[in-house]
Amino acid sequence: MNKSLLSSFSKSTPSRFPQGNVEMKVCCTTPSPVASIDDFTIVDEKSTPPKILSGTSFSTIGATRSSVKTNNGLPPAICTTVIVSHKYRFINSSNAANRSVTVSTLLTSLGGIATSAISFSSFASAVRLRSVTVFPSSGGDVDLAWTALGQHETDEVKDHTIPGGITVTSPALFRPPKDALVSKWQNSSTPSAQLFTISSSMGSIVDVHVEYRLSNAFGNVTATVVGASAGTVSYTPLDTGGTYLPIGVPISLF
């Protein structure tokens, strides 16, 4: 490159060149010791010219390195318990009414492992109920009642019975009452506690949306089943009577 041209560039301030309606300017750094074409760049008038360092490639300009906040260089605390959110599906295998769903049956219905032909242990130790959706069979009635245990500091039963003579053709969605105990986390320390009762016609589909935690600090719950194979994974019915059966997964019956 012509030395006089390089000298002119190094001593001058950024110059402006009109190009249509956009003003462009040429920025340069003092050649050290010999300038190359990589030491120059064209930028928009409104932007801040990047600082070009000798030996720096254009691909690294503007690159940043994020940092992790730590306490004196120590790893931050994390939750080691696995948390799962999932929607489980069940089918009503009979017309039995007011089937009881407890903490224990809900936990075992989420899956577990058989320890023998008659013994079953849940994977989960704590669960929080989000919603229950009932898809009634043709002409069937739907009823879901949160039990007194499920209410907060009061003796109250909430009933969602569909009036007689009305055919439910659309899904019925039930959510735990706000601030009720049934809407909070339940764990294996109270396995027999009843959460709600449910009634629907035979063939109805029930979707149960829950969050649960795999057993860690708390122990799991156990159940007596029939015809299980030790070491195999399966799922139990939703209710104590074994009426609402899991769909699409291996089943262990009470």
How is this fold's topology laid out?
Blueprint lengths: L2 H9 L3 E5 L2 E7 L11 E5 L38 E10 L6 E4 H7 L2 E3 L4 E4 L1 E12 L6 E5 L11 E2 L12 E3 L11 E2 L6 E7 L4 E10 L7 E3 L8 E2 L9 E3 L8
Antiparallel strand pairs: 1-2, 2-3, 4-14, 4-17, 5-13, 6-7, 6-16, 7-15, 8-11, 8-12, 8-14, 9-10, 9-13
Describe the structure.
The protein is built from two helices and 17 strands. By secondary structure, it is mainly beta. It folds into two domains: 3-57, no CATH class; 83-246, Jelly Rolls, CATH 2.60.120.
The structural class is mainly beta
Radius of gyration, taken over Cα atoms and rounded to an integer in Å: 34 Å
Low-confidence blocks of residues = 5-13, 22-32, 34-41
Please describe the biggest sheet, giving its number of strands, its sense, and whether it closes into a barrel.
6 strands, antiparallel
Alpha plus pi helix count: 2
Helix fraction, binned, reads under 10%
Q: What number of domains?
A: 2
Task: Name its key features.
2 domains, 2 helices, 34% strand, 254 residues, four-stranded antiparallel β-sheet, Jelly Rolls, six-stranded antiparallel β-sheet, mainly beta
Short summary:
The chain has 254 residues and is mainly beta. The chain is 6% helix and 34% strand.
